[in-house]
Amino acid sequence: MQRAVNMVAQLGLRLQALPLALGRPLSCAQTKILGCDRVKLMESLVVGDIAELRPNQGTLSLFTNEAGGILDDLIVTSTSEGYLYVVSNAGCRDKDLALMQDKVRELQNEGSDVSLEVVDNALLALQGPTAAQVLQAGVADDLRKLPFMTSAVMEVFGVSGCRVTRCGYTGEDGVEISVPAAAAVHLATALLENPEVKLAGLAARDSLRLEAGLCLYGSDIDEHTTPVEGSLSWTLGKRRRAAVDFPGASVIVAQLKGKVQRRRVGLMCEGAPMRAHSPILNTEGTVIGTVTSGCPSPCLKKNVAMGYVPYEYSRPGTPLLVEVRRKQQMAVVSKMPFVTTNYYTLK
């Protein structure tokens, strides 16, 4: 399944068939949570089991409100240096920082040992099946020992103090490199000197994350969506579920035990591509939901999308209709990811 490399910027082709793609520096919020009560603070805001993380292991988690709605998705890493490293979305930067800073002040007033430090770093995403091979040339650490969702601080092509995390929002193997902002252009230039590496923008990343069934905050999940509705129940730590001690837990745990009214599902169709806000209908023609993300899949040569439908229509294989350009066309509920992910795990 080989494809022309020069099409990556135009179509965002699956990185399985490309050497590499280098995303632009991201303006994500990067913070350190320090102090003996750092886990206490983070677990007061997110649904995940942060206490169980091993040194330098990270997890995708969710900020939630008291109604169970998702305020943002984020990655929390428990570092061997004794702090939590948090990366959240650029579009939610201000509200996420305010949320954490308010909680820091609250706990400090109660006598807790906790503080927050904003990290003035850029974030470069190097994604693709040969990402580790390319990066290995510029680091002393053995990247074979760095599996998915783990990280380490290292010098990268002469830039010291970089945190390399084996992750990325493409469904492929790759890394995200937290680099001091002043050195971001230098590092990007060094990576691009390898002919394997090509620049890719957010449009390319969007088709990749959609093929991998990954949510985009503000489109597929938001403050009015719970983790259960968003098919993100796997982010809820088992201990946290039992303790019912995270924001919105009473709502979310009740949904886990019963049926939710709606669920995020994958959709596939042929014909015109489904786009955000396209109506979803049952086969009788009644509107039952809405598409939240959609695009042609370069890998599958079909159109893929996500959207919300009532629970009774959420089973894979269920036939539905979508309205595209005022015309109805057949669609089918499909399992996600649409394309098998290729994360690197230790054998």
TrEMBL record:
Name of the encoding gene: AMT
Pfam families in alphabetical order: GCV_T (PF01571), GCV_T_C (PF08669)
Quaternary structure and interacting proteins, as annotated: The glycine cleavage system is composed of four proteins: P, T, L and H.
InterPro entries: GcvT, GcvT/YgfZ/DmdA, GcvT/YgfZ_C, GcvT_C, GCVT_N, TrmE/GcvT-like
NCBIfam families from the UniProt entry: gcvT (TIGR00528)
Entry keywords, A to Z: Aminotransferase, Mitochondrion, Signal, Transferase, Transit peptide
A GO CC term attached to the entry: glycine cleavage complex
GO BP, sorted A to Z: glycine catabolic process
Residues covered by the GCVT N-terminal domain: 29-237
Positions with a binding annotation for substrate: E176
Span of domain Aminomethyltransferase C-terminal: 262-339
Species whose genome carries this gene: Ailuropoda melanoleuca (Giant panda)
SUPFAM superfamilies according to UniProt: Aminomethyltransferase beta-barrel domain, Folate-binding domain
Described purpose of this protein according to its UniProt entry: The glycine cleavage system catalyzes the degradation of glycine.
Protein name: Aminomethyltransferase
